[in-house]
């Protein structure tokens, strides 16, 4: 893989981003967690629906690319942010970018976006065992608020909800 300086982080939709982000999720989670078709279809369908109704005043997608190929991404769904908090979704990196600080850059952009919009909180769903991601989330202020067995991704796991409360000027 190219040096870190060759990584480009871009805001907004790129042609092929939906397919590539779904592919990155499907490949990683199939290899490490046994997830299958249900999960890949869920990621592709929900990401597509998000981008079809995307409003740049409340929502954002960031992609990390190397030589024009999407190698990672994250999104903020702000549709219900004033009431429930913004939803951080679809955070993924290719194996080539893991451990190089690109994930921190993506998550930091997502948090900064929410702070700029004065959202009261950000939440995300993940599951137990994704230790590197959990460490990153906690390092930027997320805290575990709920843990339960569930199968929202098509495979039973110990689901975890993390939340980051943001300072608001009230």
From TrEMBL:
Name of the protein in its database record: N-acetyltransferase domain-containing protein
Statement: the UniProt record of this protein carries the keyword Transferase: yes
Single GO term (MF): N-acetyltransferase activity
Record organism: Desulfosarcina alkanivorans
Pfam families: Acetyltransf_1
Gene3D superfamilies: 3.40.630.30
Keywords for the protein's UniProt record, in alphabetical order: Transferase
InterPro entries xref list: Acyl_CoA_acyltransferase, GNAT_dom, NAT_camello-type
Domain of life: Bacteria
């Amino acid at each position: 893989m190219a040096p870190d300086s060759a990584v480009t982080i871009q805001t907004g939709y790129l042609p092929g981003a939906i397919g590539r982000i779904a592919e990155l999720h499907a490949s990683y989670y199939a290899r490490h967690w046994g997830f299958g078709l249900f999960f890949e279809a869920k990621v592709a369908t929900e990401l597509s629906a998000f981008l079809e109704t995307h409003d740049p005043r409340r929502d954002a997608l960031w992609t990390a690319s190397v030589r024009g190929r999407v190698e990672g991404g994250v999104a903020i769904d702000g549709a219900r942010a004033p009431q429930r908090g913004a939803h951080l979704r679809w955070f993924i990196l290719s194996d080539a970018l893991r451990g190089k600080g690109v994930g921190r850059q993506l998550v930091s952009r997502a948090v900064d976006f929410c702070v700029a919009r004065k959202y009261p909180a950000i939440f995300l769903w993940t599951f137990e065992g994704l230790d590197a991601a959990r460490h990153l989330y906690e390092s930027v202020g997320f805290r575990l608020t709920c843990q339960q067995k569930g199968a929202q991704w098509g495979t039973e796991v110990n689901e975890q909800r993390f939340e980051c409360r943001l300072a608001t000027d009230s």
